[in-house]
């Protein structure tokens, strides 16, 4: 009984950690993409404005 309870707690903890990891990825990925694209979009906008 205690073994199955600890197993359930471990499983819940793993699921929660996984969920947190997914949320962190969903938060960081758009930011990383924006930071990666921003300079290029700025350069393109600058190019279009000056030419």
Automatic annotation (TrEMBL):
It comes from the Eukaryota. The chain crosses the membrane at residues 28-49. Keywords: Membrane, Transmembrane, Transmembrane helix. This is Uncharacterized protein.
